[in-house]
Design brief:
The complex is a heterodimer. Chain A is an alpha/beta fold. Helices cover 64% and strands 8% of the residues of chain A. In chain B, the strands form three sheets. In chain B, strands 6-7-8-3-9-10 form a six-stranded mixed sheet, sandwiched between helices. Chain B has a four-stranded antiparallel sheet with strand order 2-1-4-5. Chain B has a four-stranded antiparallel sheet with strand order 12-13-11-14, sandwiched between helices. The chains are: A alpha/beta, B alpha/beta. The complex binds adenosine-5'-triphosphate and magnesium ion. Chain B: It holds the Pfam family ABC_tran.
């Protein structure tokens, strides 16, 4: 029995020493609960507010203004843009600029008097959480607010007509599966590249490589190219299975899907490269990947609508490649958007990749010290 | 060529100037120093390595051989001092030297999961060989380093000696002017070590300068010149024969029946630098200042018991004696 304790405590003491010397692991042990707590506590808000929407007021009447104000007062939506025609508003929805648009017809005042349905909401139904919030507005009691509190409208008539686009049956798989590509690519691409370089350092290959004429940038690009194909393969698997098993519609062009994916893969791979220049061991590379992965799942819009997050969480989300890709891939697959309408996110990913590769190549010295 | 192989240490290199851009000294280090925190791993080492020669670094574990080589390769920046490799300053312009130097690391640094041939081809491509030229060069190396049966074998399934042949093949693939070998034969048997050195002499005959670190005396003895390092400092430097001839000690071999009892009293003698047991003999290094070392020893030791066949003979010094003497004198 004493031998049992003796040997076991030897291992325990040794493990504590390992922990104490690996500052990165120790730091992660503290940071992960801290960051998770903040992310879950702040970012996660299933009650969606201030959804960005547009307005098409064809009536141009005082009633239109009052109705708009009343809708705003619910805090469910935030009118960000005005459009002349419902067509323009629809295009803005496809681009992802707004989640929905309220169309008020020319005969608004008349409808108000006749207790008819006042207008129509055009809603991007792909995110079920967002559309659920918007659907609350359907029976919003407007008339009282405007004309006469004594005249109650017939209960049967809804205030607004709701037109759900892209996901009329409101299935969550439709929104989740395209988003899953972003999460899976973040997980594998970042990890693969981060460990690929660190592994060479751990095994001693690096000491040989750096005495050859190879340039850091050649080494970096050479390292990431093979993984591009792995990433494209993963996306194909997810989308094909999503299509066959879960009936996720593919409304956009396949070329655009792959182009957007390619941009994101490159950005994720460079992120992995940057990590590889910061860590010493494969274990640390894995922890650093976790550190990127968690916010990429929680803040990118994958699990919770971007709109529902507080400002600070949105700022962090904007710094993550996954957030930009999440928007792009959902726009293309679900709303049939084309890449040229997603210029900002595409350019952001390209800029991230270029800056990342440069940074990694600069940080990577052909030195041992 | 055969000559230099049989008596390498006595043949001085005659190939300097073999290469068009050859400099007199392939390596010139000037008070090179490297500190790791409080530890000085290399302490103001200055040396000159003549082109087209084999130069040895001899020293115990941790004396700074690897650190020295890494600085000369431009992988570590010196804390102080400077060095010129093939006339080019390192680490500042180390990149210019990449195609002209080869480095075989102490720890095996090729890819364990690529076959010999794949490893060779990879390194070849890094040095901008391609197509037929690459295939030809790989075939040449496979031939030279006897790797034909190992072409498709992965290093993780090869013996220590085979791995080192492969590593040397990779290090010499681009025909470097200067080759750094860090303990290249640490896991090689004497027979294969001899073969390995024949390859080195072949390379040297073709004009390659080779810097090799070792802690084997027999290996050190084969070098044209030698630097003995201890605790980061250069203790002595020169060609092995001269070092042995100029040894600052007499070497006396003692035989007799009470040798074990004698060891401690001899060690305590003021003019004795070291005592080492070698089988049935004691090898004693006595200060060069003592004119008659045998008599000195006989005088200082208790008279031999009757029937003891105690004998003291003066013998030729070997490299180990040189090593012990130079490292011993500094320690006092
Ligand atoms: N990266 C490092 N950080 C701190 N100390 C180091 C580092 N590298 C080497 N040292 C120390 O510098 C000294 C010289 O090491 P070096 O590896 O050069 O010895 P060596 O002569 O090659 O030994 P060996 O024969 O065992 O290979 C040693 O004391 C070693 O502990
Ligand atoms: Mg060493």
């Amino acid at each position: 029995m004493p031998a049992f304790w003796g040997r076991m405590s030897a291992v325990i003491v040794k493990e504590f020493k390992h922990l104490g010397r690996d500052r990165m692991t120790f730091g992660m042990a503290v940071m992960i609960p801290l960051v998770q707590l903040l992310l879950f506590g702040y970012a996660i808000n299933t009650e969606v507010r201030y959804v960005p929407v547009g307005l098409v007021d064809q009536s141009g009447s005082a009633a239109g203004r009052i109705i708009t104000q009343a809708v705003s007062a619910t805090q469910v939506v935030d009118f960000q843009q005005r459009y002349h025609t419902p067509k323009e508003a629809e295009q803005a929805i496809v681009k992802g600029e707004i989640r929905a648009a309220l169309v008020l017809p020319p005969d608004l005042t008349q409808r108000l008097v006749q207790h008819r349905t006042l207008g129509q909401w055009l809603i991007d139904g792909s995110d079920t959480m967002v559309s659920a919030s918007l659907l609350q507005l359907r029976n919003m009691p407007l008339n009282q607010a405007i004309i006469d509190p004594n005249i109650a409208p017939p209960a049967a008539t809804p205030t607004f007509d709701m037109a759900l686009f892209f996901n009329p049956t409101r299935r969550s798989a439709v929104n989740i599966i395209p988003g899953l590509t972003a999460v899976i690519l973040t997980m594998t691409m970042v990890l693969f590249t981060a460990t690929a370089i660190v592994r060479e350092r751990e095994r001693g290959n690096m000491e040989l490589i750096i005495t050859t004429p190879i340039r850091p940038i050649e080494l970096m690009i050479g390292k990431i190219v093979p993984y591009i194909f792995i990433g494209l393969m993963q996306v194909s698997i997810i989308l094909l299975l999503g299509y066959w098993i879960f009936d996720v519609p593919v409304n956009g062009s396949v070329t655009h899907i792959y182009l957007a994916t390619l941009l994101f893969i490159c950005a994720s791979l460079t992120l992995g490269l940057i990590i590889s220049t910061l860590v010493q061991t494969q274990l640390q590379a894995m922890q650093a990947t976790m550190f990127i992965l968690l916010p990429s799942i929680l803040l990118s819009g994958f699990m919770f609508p971007y709109e529902a997050m507080p400002h600070i969480a949105q700022t962090i989300a904007e710094a993550l490649p996954a957030t930009h890709f999440m928007r792009m891939i959902r726009a293309i697959i679900l709303r049939g958007a084309e890449l040229d309408t997603l210029v900002f996110d595409s350019l952001w990913l390209i800029a991230f990749t270029l800056a990342g590769i440069t940074l990694a190549a600069l940080r990577f010295h052909k030195r041992l010290d | 060529m055969a000559d230099s192989r049989q008596q390498p240490h006595s043949s001085q290199p005659t190939h300097a100037g073999h290469r068009p851009d050859a400099v007199e000294y392939a390596i010139e280090a000037n008070r090179l120093t490297r500190k790791f925190g409080p530890l000085t791993a290399v302490d103001q080492v200055s040396l000159q390595v003549p082109s087209a020669s084999i130069y040895g670094f001899l020293g115990p574990n941790g004396c700074g051989k690897t650190t020295m080589i890494r600085m000369l390769c431009g992988l570590l920046s010196p804390t102080a001092g400077d060095a010129k490799i093939l006339g080019i300053a390192v680490p500042e312009h180390a990149e210019q030297l990449r195609t002209r130097t080869g480095y075989m690391t102490q720890k095996f640094s090729l890819y364990e999961d690529l076959s010999s041939e794949e490893n060779l081809k990879f390194i070849g491509r890094i040095y901008s060989l391609s197509g037929k030229a690459l295939i030809r060069r790989v075939d040449e190396l496979v031939e030279t380093y006897e790797l034909s049966t190992l072409r498709n074998r992965r290093p993780d399934a090869m013996s220590g000696g085979q791995r080192q042949r492969l590593a040397l093949a990779c290090a010499t693939l681009h025909k470097p002017d200067l080759l750094f070998l860090d303990e290249p034969t640490s896991s090689v048997d004497p027979e294969n070590r001899r073969k390995f050195w024949e390859k080195l002499f072949d390379l040297c005959d073709q004009g390659t300068t080779i810097l090799v670190s070792t802690h084997f005396m027999d290996e050190a003895e084969r070098c044209h010149r030698l630097a003995i390092l201890e605790a980061g400092q250069l203790r002595t430097e020169g060609d092995p024969q001269t070092l042995m001839n100029n040894l600052q000690s007499h070497v006396v071999e003692l035989t007799g029946s009470r040798l074990r009892d004698l060891k401690t009293p001899i060690q305590r003698l003021p003019h004795v630098k070291s005592v080492a047991q070698q089988g049935a003999r004691l090898r004693v290094l006595v200060d060069i200042g003592i004119e008659h070392p045998q008599a000195y020893l006989a005088q200082q030791l208790p008279p031999p018991a009757p029937g003891d066949d105690f004998q003291a003979t003066l013998v030729r010094p070997n490299l180990e004696d040189v090593f012990v003497t130079v490292t011993h004198s500094e320690r006092q």
